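Researcher: Following up on the earlier apo prediction. This time include the ligand. It's zinc ion, with the SMILES given after the sequence.
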Amino acid sequence: MIVTMTHPAAPLSGYQPIGGALCLDFANTVDWHDSDHPVELLNCAESLSIWARLVGTDDGGVDDADLRCATELRDAVWEVLRAVVEEAPIPPNAVAVLNRNLELAPEHRSLTVVDSGVAWSDRTVRGADALLARIARSAADLLTDPDRLKRVRMCAAEGCGWLFVDDSRGARRRWCSMQSCGNRAKARAHYRRKQI
Ligand SMILES: [Zn+2]
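Model: Understood. Below is the ligand-bound prediction.
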């Protein structure tokens, strides 16, 4: 169960798109994902819009129903990639969620007549669906690219759970972000002290 702790006025506070792939940046919208106290960063539809803009894409306008679909996709991406990182069996249910989202934007597009002639049209796909399909496509591309997939890592900070493609020289990157995980490690120590 996801526990929402971020303040609605400051959604995605401290979030950085460090994943190296759209699907991983999306998977990383939960802090402490691999712990028993995950923190949801997408706590309202507006936060999904903000995330889309942060990673340089368009949300097309989202509502609460879109947000539920988005977090379901997000959790599926994370579960599949975690299984890859841990060399565990890929959960079929999560793959089914990826497939449902891939189908939101069929590969074939249609042509439309515009002032300057003929152009591609994908206006039949709702903006939010196009966003989810793009994320699912990013996951599918990563999962079927062995060279990139073998460089996917989970942050070494206990419980962090953020995923990234390790493009560092020598493939020795261990942390999602030194600054981020350093700061969050402090916050976690603070959280623990408050629990005692
Ligand atoms: Zn981390």
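Model: The chain has one domain: 5-195.
Researcher: Noted. I'll compare it with the apo version next.
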